[in-house]
Automatic annotation (TrEMBL):
A Pfam family per the record: Exonuc_VII_S
Protein name as annotated: Exodeoxyribonuclease 7 small subunit
Lineage, opening ranks: Bacteria, Bacillati, Actinomycetota, Actinomycetes, Kitasatosporales
Underlying gene: xseB
Protein family (similarity comment): Belongs to the XseB family.
Record EC number: 3.1.11.6
Function summary: Bidirectionally degrades single-stranded DNA into large acid-insoluble oligonucleotides, which are then degraded further into small acid-soluble oligonucleotides.
Compartments, record wording: Cytoplasm
GO biological process: DNA catabolic process
Coiled-coil zones: none
Quaternary structure annotation from Swiss-Prot or TrEMBL: Heterooligomer composed of large and small subunits.
């Protein structure tokens, strides 16, 4: 499960699957090949989560920048009418 399928995962889906991958790796009892496959899947899922978080950060930064740009205009208008 890679590529476009991963892109369709929500943050929560990717996070939950990543938690399961980590749990399985920590529990042990897997072959080297299975462990490597789990690790690779974990890396893919971590990238999906990172993309979601970076997107959320960009949206938050943009909203905060808009708010900061709007505040001086509002303050200036209020001071001019006083």
């Amino acid at each position: 499960m890679t590529g476009k399928v991963d892109e369709a995962l929500s943050y929560e889906q990717a996070r939950d699957e990543l938690i399961e991958v980590v749990r399985r790796l920590e529990a042990g009892g897997t072959t080297l090949e299975e462990s490597l496959a789990l690790w690779e899947r974990g890396e893919e899922l971590a990238k999906v989560c990172r993309r979601w978080l970076e997107g959320a950060r960009a949206r938050l930064d943009a909203a905060l920048a808009e708010e900061a740009e709007a505040e001086p205009s509002a303050d200036g208008a209020a001071e001019g009418s006083a």
